[in-house]
Amino acid sequence: MRPLILTVMIVALSACNPSTPEPAAPEATTAPAPQAAAPAQAAAVEAAPAQAAAKPDKVIPEGPCGDQSALPADQRVANTARWTTASEQDNFGFDVYRGNSEDGPFTKLTKDPIVGAGTSDETHKYEFRDDTIDPCKAYWYYVEGISTKGTREKFTPTFRAPPKHRPVGSPPNADAAPPVKE
């Protein structure tokens, strides 16, 4: 059997806010290639809608902070990681991890792996919606690939999801500075 090879991958992180959907106006930036078996792999991290792609000059809206578990799932603010493969070889699936800082520690979010396409020359799109976030916090994510032999490899670079809200009464550009590592 051949090792897990995923040739082209795009990672996008978007905010889900059911009450105010925004059209996607992605801005692609090049990121380091993922640590994987194929030498010709490319990766891009795509900032998703303007709400999630907060820049220092973009004001993050005020909103509720903290645990959202009391809300119905369709009303929770979420981060959604999306990635695409151009082809796959011996791909069992993917697990998604989240941390409070770029250096971790990271926690596996997927109860069961997101099922991969096995071996395929076709493009496949995947996503994972994380609605267990505090909308006022930034988070870091990465996706781990799992081969059919059980080999696990970090599939994406670690990428940041900025806060979706800022606490009521806080300064408008509270997320302008890089996050403090916890």
Please provide a written account of the structure:
- It is a single chain.
- With 182 residues, this protein is mainly beta.
- It has one domain (5-161): Sandwich (Immunoglobulin-like), CATH 2.60.40.
- The chain has strands spanning 5-6, 8-16, 27-30, 42-47, 78-85, 88-99, 106-108, 114-120, 124-130, 139-147, 152-154, 159-161.
- The strands form two sheets. Strands 1, 6, 7, 8, 10, 11 and 12 form a seven-stranded antiparallel beta sheet that branches. A five-stranded mixed beta sheet has the order 3-4-2-5-9, with no helix packed on it.
- It is elongated and about 50 Å long.
- The termini are far apart.
- Mean pLDDT is 74; it is low at 1-55 and 176-182.
Estimate the helix proportion, in percent: under 10%
Please indicate the percent range of residues in DSSP E strands (runs of 2 or more).
35-45%
Structural class comes to mainly beta
The CATH architecture can be named as Sandwich
Note the main sheet: 7 strands, antiparallel
What is the mean predicted local confidence, pLDDT? 74
Q: Would you list the SSEs in sequence order as H and E?
A: EEEEEEEEEEEE
CATH homology superfamily name: Immunoglobulins
Radius of gyration, in Å, reads 17 Å
Which CATH class is shown?
Mainly Beta
Number of alpha- plus pi-helical segments: 0
For the terminal residues, how far apart are their CA atoms? Answer: 42 Å
Q: What number of domains? A: 1
| Number of DSSP E strands | 12
Low-confidence stretches: 1-55, 176-182
Q: Could you name the CATH topology?
A: Immunoglobulin-like
Gross morphology: elongated
